[in-house]
Amino acid sequence: MSEFATSTAPADVVRRQYLASATGDPEALRATLAPDVAWTEMAGFPLAGTYRTPEGVTSNVMEKLGQDWDGWTAHDDTYVVDGENVVVLARYTAVNKATSKPIDVRVAHHFVVRGGLIVRFEQFVDTALVHEAMVP
Questions:
Q1: For FRET with 107, which of 4, 43, 48, 76 sits at 20 to 30 Å CA-CA?
Q2: CA–CA gap between residue 16 and residue 135 (Å, rounded)
Q3: Can you say whether residue 122 is alpha, beta or left, with left for phi > 0 and alpha for psi between -120 and 50 degrees?
Q4: From the centroid of its chain, how far is CA 107?
């Protein structure tokens, strides 16, 4: 097993979460989340709210995104790390299944990683651009 796969460094844990999400591996994604994780999707986002437990996050966020969007991907590109805080600048790309409209929108994610697990997540995104793709 590689050093990256077992690293508890906050940026490595967050990167494993993005990789698991991109490859559609809910088990690997859940392995990056603390049992009491607080995962917050921004107000105005279609899945707005705070989800708890690794299963709650994968079933209420990742699986629902997969139901409504083709190819939903968060492309992580810039990491800013300050202790247990990891801010990632990224881009969402996907095509809405109902409208066939694509999105390509910038996003910022704030993670808090403790003991090698994500304990908190908060999303910041231009929700109007996401909604625009959902309207026929």
A1: 4
A2: 33
A3: beta
A4: 10
Output the six-digit token pair for 132. Answer: 């625009």
Nearest to 96 by CA among 105, 87, 108: 105
Side chain identity at residue 1, one-letter code: M
| Distance (Å, whole) CA 98 – CA 89 | 28
State if pTM tops 0.85: yes
Query: Residue 110 in contact with residue 121, Cβ under 8 Å?
Result: yes
| pLDDT digits (tens), the chain, 136 positions | 678 888 999 999 999 999 999 998 999 999 999 999 999 999 999 999 999 999 999 999 999 999 999 999 999 999 999 999 999 999 999 999 999 999 999 999 999 999 999 999 999 999 999 999 999 9
